Amino acid sequence: MKIEYEDSFVKIASLLGGDDYVKVARALLNNENATDEEIASATGLKINSVRKALYDLFGRSLITGIRVRDLKRGWFVYRWKAQRDQVDGFIDTQKKKALERLRQRLIYEDEHQFYSCGTPTCKKLTFEEAMEAFFKCPTCGKNLNLIDNTEFKHALEWKIGQMQQESAK
Hints:
Blueprint: H1 8-17, H2 19-30, E1 34-35, H3 36-43, H4 47-59, E2 63-69, E3 76-82, H5 87-111, E4 114-116, E5 125-126, H6 127-132, E6 145-147, H7 150-168
Antiparallel strand pairs: 1-3, 2-3, 4-5, 4-6
Helix pairs in contact: 1-2, 2-3, 3-4, 5-7
């Protein structure tokens, strides 16, 4: 049976590595227990690109590899298989990590005051950094002004609430 549709395994592969990963993911779904050489042949990708994608997907527990002896050549090869049942767990883990990063950022924004010169290419500074620079931008030399980050904190709080509601379902 050939799998042509886009399922969550292929979508995750796309997010992780783009077109090469999509080709490898589709090849794995269409040919269970394929070797890296068979996948390279099926996708038209170079063997190094295929191996890079396979090792990355394997490192994230989205595929498994079984070492077997190649009867023709006598050496060991890996036969790769997609673990579609791991996709939901992978997505949940990534969501939890993102939620924790948002929480940490909100704490950081709450605990600090920020200063900027208003130039988009210049970095915003914490109060301590601004004080060390005598409230002059270290990049362009303009005066540093206090930034009101209330809107940004509200946006973080909204996104955190949205993600918490989604994970509660």
